[in-house]
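Researcher: Let's try something more involved. This one mixes different molecule types, so please make sure each is placed in the same coordinate frame as the others.
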Amino acid sequence: MSRDAELDAFVDLLRGATPDPAILADARAATLTRAGASLGSAGGAALLGKALAVLALGVGLALGVAALRADLPVTRGPLPKAPPERASIATPSSPARSIPAPPIAAPSIAAPSVAPERVATPAPAATARPVAAPVERRAKPADAPVARLPLQLDVGAVPVIPSGPSAPSETMAEALRDYAGERYVEAAVSLQRVVEGRSGDRADRVSQAEFFLAKCLYHMGLYHASAAAFDEVTQRGAAHPYFDASLTWLAMLAERLPEPSGVIASVGRYDAAQLSALDRGETRRHYHHLRYLLGRARYGERRFAEAVALLSGVPESSPHGLEARFFEGIAHVRMRSAQPALRAFGRVIDAVESGRTGGHDEPARMRDLAWMSVARLYYSLAMQQPSGRDAHASELLGHAIAAWRNIPLESEYWLDSFFEETWALYVAGQPARALGHVHTLQSPYFRERAHPEALVVRSMIQFEHCQWDAVEHGLSGFHARFDPQLDAAERALRMAQRNEDAFRMLVAVRAHNSRVPGPARAAVRAAFDERTLLRHLEEVRALDREQRRLGRVLAGSLETSLHTRVAADLAVLRSLAVDRTGEMARERLARVVAELRERMNQMDTIELELATQRRMELERPNPAPMEPPTGGRIVAVQGDQLWPWDGEWWRDELPFYFQEIENRCGR
Amino acid sequence: MGVDASLEESLEAVAAGDAAGPELAEVFDAHAPYVGRTLRLLGVRERELGDALQEVFLVVHRRLGELEEPSKLRAWLYAICVRKAMSLRRDAARRREDSVAEPPELEVERRTPHDDLEKARALAAAFEILEALDEDKRAIFVLYEVEQQPMSEIAEALGCPLQTAYARLYAARREVSRALARLKAKGKVER
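Model: All components are placed in one shared frame. Result:
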């Protein structure tokens, strides 16, 4: 039996340690009796008060309860509710229609600040790194305060010993010699001894050892462990003599790690002035990278103006230039500055179209994201126009639609942008094109990425055109398809109660061997097929690889405290990464459920309105004859060519379908 | 609706000022098995369990009105259990200073039919392993591994950062694994 299996068996055994029912029954009776006595005493003995009441229960209990009360934590009050993902914005005045009012308002599509889920989302304000390994490893600060060491910019092998340091111990001196000789494993083993205080070195040397240990781990290819070690250095801020010198290494680590959020947290401890020391010569590329990372950190802290100032200083020639510009735009959106945001997104698009990508490895994706952000921004602006400004709102909607259309069919953002455009077309009073979009979204090409909301749009358009039978037909089709899916998605969510469970589900879904109930499988897979989530999953896998690498790199030093420390750091980092990734997966799963419930509610609203309209029809003196739900003719319009849809979807026709719809209102 | 959900609704109503608190009996019935198991895993002896249960629920009785987030009732109960168990262990330690070491608790095993003997012995060994863990590590191990509570809630209940909670869990797992390996080597645990 493997070690893990033994641990599992151990835990199973403990889970079976439920107390004897007889003990529970006795305790229940005694507790209720004593609780009753407590109430009686407190009510009847005003003069002696609680003291007598407690005495009535026995001195032993009184002591126990008092001890408990002394430090019992009181659960905090409820957390403030998170703001809604989609702000409720009043529906703009739509083109004049002598039709029943739509049962549901068109949504405001999330502004780019929250919308681009498929781009690297801003890192949380502070992603903590483990610093508390279960082994004692940091020497206590020695007597005298440590003089601040000069900025060390070298990233090479030769250590710089600042002026006036204390004499190194033999262990430390040997460690430095090993480092200079690029014998990083040997150096790291010795440095860990210094860090633990086993060498007798003074505080300045211990700080130096911490810094060099972090560098050794980098050279050993243990990047997560190195980031954790640098995190310890930077947590002490400028009080650590190697705080400034760590900056360059953080930039290099960010290039090595699949998920830079931990490094962003470390970089966030610096200010722009500290970064500027690197703005010269061969460190300039690190400087630009660090500006980008610090901008991301400030964005995560909601210090948007500072974020913009930092990000705007990252030049186009930097590999991070496109992302810096994109986040600059997003930060402007968060500050509600539409014009600067549009300019920033425009610069991304222009740079990619002109081939000035700075060596970015996915420039087309950045361009598509920028177009999507432009579209969402215009749409949001259109939805915010007050009544009486219909023409301006229509113009803004036109810009939004044009922006969405710039995203090519082969883009990973095409489907979402196409769906969002559907709403815009509906609001812009182009029902035939909106219905054509819904038709496209129902094609077998996108079976795995269903957009149930598209069916809501269709039902609303049909409702507005008094196509009662078509609405009814659509409602039953919707329920037939999505009721089982909602039920299955709710069951899947119950299977992922803990972050760790959700993580396991994510891994299984990615490996196509999950136990997610069938009807929800495609929706869950689609929800999990998301860049940020997958990057976090990759982070866990990278940690697994690093744990294996640790065994190889330190194969001859398995019994050292260095191995114990790094193994503990990696294990804790992995647990945190699993926790974070699982939490994200569960949130996405919960979003699938919430979205389906919301669509159900919208369809229920339409159904109620439909019943009202049906009743009114019957009450009219000459009710309109029942007509079959035709749904209207569908054609693909490409230029001046018109192709009737013959029951088969063609990929090159997907963006071009129209569906005619007859207005039966007032007949 | 399950007992827990119903109880939670009652507690929410109290928190909202809409109702009187749930009966103590209701809370006891819903959570006594959990509290009992938790106390055992925190090192409370079988013979002390009845009293410990009473005392935990008397605290609940007196302080339930202060619970502002009913959904965190279990974490709150656990915090009470931890303090009760610590208090009992402190008392036991004081008693040990005045007397010889307590004999291992084998009464249950002696009374157990043969079929259950192996399990009872394994459980006694498991308690010994848990007993050897520090308070902090044991709390994390029990809550996370045995009670399967989310780590974020555990960290909040125990008042420590998430990363510290994971560091303790890692350390606890390692110690338990080593203890299991030692027991296996001695032939005390055959599974």
